[in-house]
Amino acid sequence: MPIILKIDEFIFHHNLQDTTGPALVFFTGIHCGSCHHLRRVLEKMLEEHLDITVFEVDAGISPSLVNEYAIFHLPSMLLFNNGNFHCYLHSEPLPQKIYAAIQAALQHPPEEEP
């Protein structure tokens, strides 16, 4: 089974700095049905695309990250590349669509970190 790494505000920046290549961070909530669905979709994506690291942040446990990245709705996805913020990622919750959105976003220069 693919591994989605759970991180919190205390290890977030350190883990991302140590991650080479693209890393997708998605913010979830314990009572968020869409978040649970997205997690399953991301697990399916990881079965075929091992070149991406996926981190999960529970918004209820890490409010400082929610504030830092201006997360207003759940689930939310952020793309990092080689430890640096790249962009907010928007995609249909389908494995191939998310992977395509990641690849397309990496073709553009990174956005300014919030």
UniProtKB/TrEMBL annotation:
InterPro entries: Thioredoxin-like_sf, Thioredoxin_domain
Domain Thioredoxin: 10-84
Pfam families: Thioredoxin (PF00085)
Protein name: Thioredoxin
Species annotation: uncultured Thiotrichaceae bacterium
